[in-house]
Structure formats: C-alpha cells, structure tokens
C-alpha cells in the first residue's frame, strides 16, 4: 500500500512539473528587421487579438518588392490594412531599390526560399516561370480566389507565359521620358509633342545643354536596352526571335545608328558618362529631381514618386518617333507584377493578398496608382475624382500611349539577363571610346546569339 501511495505521489509531481513548464512556455518570433541595403519587417503579436485568435496559428507570408520610399510607405500601409481584415495572416515584408533586387531574388531562388509574393518584371517573368519557380494562377481565378472580372484581357495577357498566368499586372505602364516644362521654357525649347522625332530630341538636347549648362537627359531615350528595342521596333523588327534562341533584327545598322546618336550627345556634354550616374541610388537622387538634367528616362508610373521627390510639376513624353518608321515603337507594358512562388506553403493566402492589392478600393486609395494605372475598371473609376496633378498626368499620358503604340513583344527569353549585361558593358565601351558603334554591333550579335542559344538548351 505504501508502495502504491509513493508511486501516486511521484506521478502527481511529474504532472505538475509538465503543466508548469507548458504554462510558462511562450512561442518566440524573430523580429530582427535589420539588413544591409534592404528593409525588413516581421510582425509582433498583436495585443488586441481575441482569445480565440491568440491561440490559433497564423498563416505567415513573406512579401518582397523594389521601389522608391514613396512606394514602400504606401505598400506597408496596405499590408497593415490587409492584416487587420485578415487576423489569421501575419506578413513579413522586405523592400529595396532596383539595384541589387534581382541578385537578391536569384539568391533566394537558388536557396529555394523565394518569398510567397514578390514583385516581378516583364523581362524576367518567362525566365522564372519556365524554371518552375512561379505558381500558375489560373486555378485560383477559376476558384474565385483571384477576381479578374473587371480586368480587360490586354491587361492580363502580359502576365502569361506559354498560355498560363504567372503574374498579375500591378498597373499599365510604358517606357517614356519625364521632363521639367519650366527648364524647357528657360532654354527656349518647345515641349515634346506626341509626334516628335529623333531629330527633334537631338536638337532639344543640344539647346538645353548650351542654354542652361546642365545635362539635357540622364541617359539616352529608353536607356541602352529599352531604347534600342524601341528603335528596332520602329523598323518593323524585334530584338529577340519568338523562340528566344537568337536576335531577331537582321540589320546591324539599327544598332549602330542608335548608339551613334547617344555617343554624339555624350561627347558634347549633353548626357552624362556612365560613372556619373552611379550616384543615383533612388528617385530622390535622379538628375531631373535635383535639376542637374531637364529630362529623365523612366517608366510612366514613376512620375508620381518623381513629382513628390522634386516638389514641382513634371510631365511625361513619348519616346521619339522615327521619321520613316513602319510601326510604332511604343507599347503598353505591365509596370510590374506580383507573382506567387511555387514553393509557398500558404498559396491560397498569398493569392488572396494579390487579389486584395488588385481589387480593394480602399487599398488602392492608399496606393493611388503609384505602380501604374490600375487594371481594375472599378478601381480606376473610384480613383478618378481623387487624383492629384501627377496622377492625372499618368492617367492621361497612358491614353496617349495607347493611341501611339503597337502590341508588346513576347516576354524576354531566359537568356535576357546575360544579354542585358552584355549590352550595358558594350555601351560603356562605346562611350569611353574603346569600341565604335559599328564594332560593338558585330560583337553584340555574336555574343548575344551564343548566350541565347545556350540558355535555350
């Protein structure tokens, strides 16, 4: 009997210790949000949760995007709004500038740790989709988790690869030129019109530099990649072949003509050398914002952040037309996408966030078209009375683009990132006098075709 009582007492003591330990144990969560060059956040447990929610396990999402400080502030606010409406979801976010973003995403992909939702670009979408890194979103449309009923097909098709939807367009956009009308007036130069030509641009750039002693532009229209693509399209050709295994255009004179114009303006001091642009880390550092230049090569959606940073009126202009063009070089481009990682453990919740970002009117009143003109017709209608001058400029400019554009080319092939680096390096060699445009054209064709053929295997 004593032995039985002894065993009972021991058992009671053991149970007491276990219960005490369980009562003292609290779930821990890493809330360290510091990084080098990036910003991160992990949610603290909310203090006002109900007892029911406090005891339940939340679905955790990671979201990553690039952009200006204005974009970061707006996106963070919408994330907080989504969490309030969905207390069963906890979101960790990280953001950075464009520089370094894709290197970080590539590293995360290699480590099989891509964020649940991350910002994608048209030039990289096919590469990530074909590698199986992105979740096809068509089933979520069919199930009603992603509502595209108020979205025109032209705003959806850009997010498709091989007929499947991998990216949700966050706003209609276009490569273009932002400019300061006051600086144009001071230089005695007419403002750009929808039908201005390359000759008009060259004349304006030279006069602005001569009259004001500043750079005319931060770089040549469209930059080394989008500008060349635009120039080639105006001649009825494409940069890449449809199968992505080689360059499509056949005449190297197009390459030579484009970079010869840029080189002429650089030699005259109307455009900066590449190393001078290294100081530009964000929209706040843009030469147009700081009045070191009268123009800037941008995508249309950037006008909202640029006007805020410059604190003065800025306008948008089309990339120049070719006087003998056979088709419009301009095109309507998805500004960027939200994609869902194929490795996400909470795909329904991830798509639910993308749907909220796309369709919720209150959320879009916070975002206010900073990423581009919203794709939902209901959202656009709701925002129209609320637009400020910069946003009205964006909305109105996109109507001009639609009237002066041709269909967008297929997404860039998997080999594009290497081709892009090659072209950037060749541009620098031309501007520093190490290669002539004619020599660079031959080298670009040879090396780009090798890259594209290898990447397609």
UniProtKB/TrEMBL annotation:
Gene3D superfamilies referenced in this protein's UniProt entry, alphabetically: Periplasmic binding protein-like II (3.40.190.10)
Keyword Methyltransferase recorded: no
Top-rank taxon, per record: Bacteria
Segments of skewed composition (Basic and acidic residues): 40-52
Keywords for this protein: Signal
PROSITE patterns: PROKAR_LIPOPROTEIN
Disordered: annotated span: 25-56
Record CDD domains: PBP2_TMBP_like
Signal peptide: 1-23
Keyword field contains Signal: yes
Protein name: Carbohydrate ABC transporter substrate-binding protein, CUT1 family
Organism name: Caldicoprobacter faecalis
């Amino acid at each position: 009997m004593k032995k039985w009582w002894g065993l009972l007492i021991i058992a009671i003591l053991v149970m007491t210790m276990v219960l005490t330990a369980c009562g003292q144990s609290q779930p821990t969560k890493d809330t360290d949000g510091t990084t080098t060059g990036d910003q991160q956040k992990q949610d603290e447990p909310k203090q006002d949760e109900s007892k029911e929610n406090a005891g339940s396990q939340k679905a955790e999402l990671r979201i990553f995007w690039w952009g200006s400080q204005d974009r970061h502030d707006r996106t963070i606010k919408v994330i907080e709004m989504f969490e309030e409406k969905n207390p069963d979801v906890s979101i960790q976010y990280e953001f950075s500038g464009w520089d370094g973003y894709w290197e970080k995403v590539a590293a995360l992909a290699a480590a099989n740790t891509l964020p649940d939702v991350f910002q994608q670009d048209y030039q990289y979408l096919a590469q990530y989709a074909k590698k199986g890194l992105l979740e096809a979103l068509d089933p979520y449309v069919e199930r009603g988790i992603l509502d595209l009923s108020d979205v025109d097909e032209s705003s959806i098709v850009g997010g498709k690869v091989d007929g499947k939807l991998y990216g949700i367009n966050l706003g209609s956009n276009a490569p273009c030129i932002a400019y300061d009308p006051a600086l144009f007036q001071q230089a005695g130069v007419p403002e750009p019109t929808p039908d201005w030509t390359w000759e008009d641009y060259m004349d304006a750039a030279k006069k602005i530099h001569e009259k004001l002693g500043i750079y005319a532009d931060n770089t040549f229209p469209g930059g080394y990649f989008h500008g060349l693509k635009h120039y080639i399209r105006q001649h009825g050709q494409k940069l890449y072949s449809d199968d992505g295994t080689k360059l499509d255009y056949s005449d190297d004179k197009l390459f030579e003509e484009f970079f010869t114009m840029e080189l002429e303006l650089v030699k005259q001091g109307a455009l900066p050398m590449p190393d001078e642009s290294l100081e530009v880390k964000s929209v706040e550092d843009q030469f147009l914002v700081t009045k070191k230049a009268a123009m800037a090569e941008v995508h249309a959606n950037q006008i909202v952040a640029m006007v805020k940073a410059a604190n003065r009126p800025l306008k948008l202009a089309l990339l120049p037309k070719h006087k003998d063009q056979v088709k419009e070089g301009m095109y309507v481009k998805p500004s960027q996408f939200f994609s869902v990682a194929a490795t996400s453990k909470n795909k329904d919740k991830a798509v639910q966030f993308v749907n909220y970002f796309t369709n919720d009117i209150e959320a879009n009143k916070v975002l206010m078209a900073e990423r581009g003109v919203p794709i939902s017709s209901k959202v656009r209608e709701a925002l129209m009375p609320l637009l400020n001058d910069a946003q009205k400029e964006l909305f109105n400019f996109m109507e001009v683009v639609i009237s002066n554009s041709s269909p967008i080319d297929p997404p860039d092939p998997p080999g594009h990132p290497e081709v892009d680096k090659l072209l950037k390096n060749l541009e620098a060699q031309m501007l520093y006098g190490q290669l002539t445009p004619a020599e660079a054209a031959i080298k670009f064709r040879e090396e780009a075709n090798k890259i594209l053929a290898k990447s397609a295997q």
